[in-house]
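URGENT: need a sanity check before tomorrow's submission.

F., can you look over the Lipoprotein record below? I want to be sure the sequence and structure line up before it goes out.
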Amino acid sequence: MISLRSIAFTGVGLLGAVLTLTACAGDGQQGIPTDSPSTPTTTTTTPSPTTTAPAPGPAVGDVPGNPQAAMALRAFLVDLDAGGVSAVTPRCWTVPPSEIPTQYADAPAILDAAAQPGVDGQYAVTWTGPVSTVSVKRSEIASGYSCPQVYPTGTEPAYSDVDATYAVERYLRRFTGAPINPDDLEGDYPLVCSQRAIWDPQGTGVPTVPPLANNPGRLTGSASFNPASVYVASTNGVHKTVYADVTNVSGFEQNQVFTLTVGQGGYCIGDVA
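Structure tokens as predicted:
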């Protein structure tokens, strides 16, 4: 026979078991293990630093405020470095042909100079090396290809009779319909003197406006000229007188007298008579 005491103890035991299971179910550390949701991971990619590749070809020193000057000189240096004098001759039509072999013979000295910092001057941009100095005219920088003047470091640029006669030849070829190059236009490559401060061929001490500056088309109507007739007749300080035989459209030939002086980029023509 089961006593009431046994039933009571059995009930208490069952109740305790139920309470124990309930407590375990509410305790995540002691109950049935459950998977907790995973935390999403993010991957951060650090962008690689960008670098500017150096311009191709020989090194050219920067010119503060005038980056176009370095680019124009570099275009010339690429040709000189790769092919020497013969490679730059066709493109350097602003330089007298007979002067090119002398100007550009020492390519290493020119490259050494160009690698130095450039100086932006009043009329030209200059790079000075241990042996040679190179300078480019402002009128040639805009073209993107500058054929520099080269002279020994420590000296000043010098201009010869050849430079003077070549300026006259270029001027006459424009008026006779056969420019040395299709791009050889007065607006881009000035040959006419425009500065009052430099024009004083009589040595009066009082510079005046160059006569040709007020009449740049003085030789309009010229048909041809004789290249063999172009020569320097006299020199007066920085001024030179150049003669040339010019024929007009009527067939009349006349000896024209050109007066030149040194301007911003070499010899310029200030008067024609």
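My own read: The chain has seven helices and nine strands. The beta strands are 118-120, 124-128, 132-137, 149-152, 222-225, 231-236, 239-248, 253-263, 266-272. If you see anything odd, call me.
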